[in-house]
């Protein structure tokens, strides 16, 4: 509020005074543009958005920088496992799908295990062997790709046999016995392992593929 004396002095000098506040528009600090070495938006953009594509790219880059074996296979299987997809090949159909906080946290947890060099089969707790999906748990041995070739050779030898009873020593996950039994419907098997965990795992896998009637499992040390 201006005083009366100030108003009279201003009138004699021919100066017009404003008695109402004049709004001043300030520049939005987030619209300020910078030049030089610090040019760019004031708000940093996340290079890896919370989508399947962004998460896959983020962890693929991290795995590669840490020299993790089979980095793309690792992250694709982890994402497929967390999203409960039918298989890793389905990940490509969900590239633009958003991930919620729980899914992001679970993927990060499993990826940290992979960075610690834990086998991907133990991380997602399952793996495909031929046409079977079998549960995997440490420290039970993980079947190698060469084992699938062994099964194929045995099946060729069993083609002309009416009934076959075979023995697997050190059954582990039960991959060999179960794969043979699935493709030889008249065969039966005995599986032996000195590990209680391996015997329980073989039994659990046999139940999941419906082959318990033709497989006997024993814990025994030879």
TrEMBL record:
Question: Any idea where the Methyltransferase small domain is?
Answer: 152-212
Q: Which CDD domains match?
A: AdoMet_MTases
Q: Could you tell me one molecular function GO term of this UniProt entry?
A: methyltransferase activity
Domain Release factor glutamine methyltransferase N-terminal positions: 60-124
Cellular component GO terms, alphabetical: mitochondrion
List, alphabetically, the Pfam families matched: MTS, PrmC_N
Matching InterPro entries: N5-glutamine_MTase (IPR050320), PrmC_N (IPR040758), SAM-dependent_MTases_sf (IPR029063), Small_mtfrase_dom (IPR007848)
- Top-level lineage group: Eukaryota
Q: What is this protein called in UniProt?
A: Methyltransferase small domain-containing protein
The species is Anopheles maculatus
Q: What is the lineage of its organism?
A: Eukaryota, Metazoa, Ecdysozoa, Arthropoda, Hexapoda
